[in-house]
Write a structure and sequence with these properties.
This protein is mostly helical. The protein contains 13 helices and no strands. The longest helix has 18 residues.
C-alpha cells in the first residue's frame, strides 16, 4: 500500500494536482511502511505539493523533516533540494534573512565533490535574488559575477542563464543599464542555444525593460515586439498579457500608440 500511495503521489505531482499529491503522500507516510530512502522521496513530493498549494507553514515543516532525514542518510542531492526549498518558503513567510541563510548554506553544500552540474549556480542565483530583495544589489552583482567568471555555461545552461538574469536585474536596480544589457544578452544567447523559446521571450522582455529604463523607448518596442511574436507562436497567454502591457507603455512613451 505504501508503494502504491507513493506512486500515486508522484503521478499527481506530475499532473500538477497538488491536493491529490498531498493526500497520497500523507497516506503513504501514515502506513509507516516506507523505508528511509522511499520516505525521503515522498517528503520531497509532499513539500513541493504543499508549496504549490500555498500551505507554507506545513511545507516548511515537511521540508525540515526532509532535510533532517537527508542529513541522516548522507543524501547530498535531497539535502540540497531541502535547503533551497527552505529558502523559498522563508521568503514566502516573510523572513528574507532566514531565506538568505538557507540559500547560502545551499551554496556551501553545492561545493561538495559529488554535487550535480549547475547546483552551485542554482543556489547562487537564489542568493542573488534574496540580496536584491534586501536592498543589497551590489553584493548580488559581485557574488553572481564572481561565479559566472569561473563556471562553464555548457555544463548547466539553464542555471547559468538564470544567474545572468538575476545579475542583470541587480544592475537595472542600480541604474547600470549597459551592464544589465550585457547580462540579459548572455542569458538570451544561452536560451537560443538550447532552443528555449519561453526563456528567449523572457530575455527579450528584460532587454526591453532595460532599454526603456535608459530612455530608449524605440529600442524597448523592438524587443517587446520580438518577445510578443514568440509568446504568440508558443501559445503562452500569460506571458502575452505581460508583453502587451509593457509594449503599450513603451509605445505611449514615444507617442505612437496605435490600435
Amino acid at each position: 500500500a505504501a508503494a502504491w500511495f507513493a506512486r500515486a503521489a508522484n503521478e499527481a505531482r506530475e499532473r500538477h494536482a497538488p491536493d491529490e499529491a498531498i493526500q497520497a503522500c500523507e497516506a503513504a507516510i501514515d502506513t509507516g511502511a516506507l523505508d528511509p530512502p522511499a520516505l525521503l522521496a515522498v517528503l520531497d513530493d509532499l513539500s513541493e505539493s504543499l508549496l504549490i498549494a500555498a500551505r507554507y507553514d506545513d511545507a516548511l515543516r515537511s521540508t525540515n523533516e526532509m532535510y533532517r532525514l537527508a542529513v541522516d542518510l548522507g543524501d547530498g542531492h535531497h539535502r540540497s533540494i531541502a535547503l533551497l526549498q527552505q529558502s523559498h518558503l522563508h521568503l514566502r513567510l516573510g523572513s528574507p534573512r532566514r531565506a538568505l541563510d538557507a540559500a547560502e548554506a545551499a551554496v556551501e553544500h553545492a561545493r561538495r565533490p559529488d554535487a550535480g552540474p549547475g547546483e552551485e549556480v542554482q543556489a547562487a542565483t537564489e542568493v542573488a535574488w534574496i540580496l536584491l530583495r534586501l536592498g543589497r544589489a551590489r553584493e548580488a552583482i559581485e557574488q553572481g559575477r564572481s561565479l559566472l567568471d569561473s563556471v562553464d555555461p555548457t555544463e548547466s545552461r539553464q542555471a547559468v542563464r538564470n544567474l545572468h538574469g538575476a545579475v542583470g536585474a541587480a544592475h537595472n536596480v542600480l541604474g547600470e543599464y549597459g551592464a544589465a544589457d550585457e547580462q540579459f544578452r548572455a542569458a538570451l544567447a544561452l536560451d537560443r542555444a538550447q532552443g528555449d523559446r519561453r526563456g528567449e521571450a523572457a530575455d527579450l522582455i528584460n532587454l526591453g525593460e532595460a532599454a526603456r529604463l535608459r530612455g530608449d523607448p524605440a529600442g524597448a518596442v523592438a524587443r517587446f515586439e520580438a518577445a510578443l511574436s514568440i509568446v504568440r507562436d508558443i501559445g503562452d497567454r500569460d506571458q502575452e498579457a505581460l508583453v502587451l502591457s509593457n509594449l503599450g507603455g513603451a509605445l505611449l512613451e514615444i507617442g505612437s500608440c496605435d490600435d
